[in-house]
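FW: tagging you since you asked about this chain on Friday. Here's the raw sequence from the shared folder, copied in full. Didn't touch anything.
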Amino acid sequence: MVHVPATPALGFVSMSFVRNTGELLAIRRQLKAFATEHRLQITKVYVEEPGPPSAAFDLLESLLESDGQPLVVPTLHHLAAIGHPLKIRDHLRRCTHEVLIATMPAERTC
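HL: got it, structure written out here
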């Protein structure tokens, strides 16, 4: 069997939609498991803290420097730290960055 290396991907979580550190750790595990199932390897998870965006801008810079690197988020709501989630997703897709949602619809809590 030929081993196909995993495609590098980035993750993004906004703490505005996370209740505590335990939930953040669970979300990180969920992103990693989702990525593995889709032959991706998350190289970094950007975590946006409440207040002025900083991790969001670091994420966008990393995406701009990459060649179509996918982005994995728990839900599209997390992209609200950057702007309107659907517009951000569509813009990233136009720039060849697939946006993947790790949480199944029935599991979504935010």
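FW: The chain has a mean pLDDT of 91.
HL: agreed, and The two ends are 41 Å apart (CA to CA).
FW: great, closing this out.
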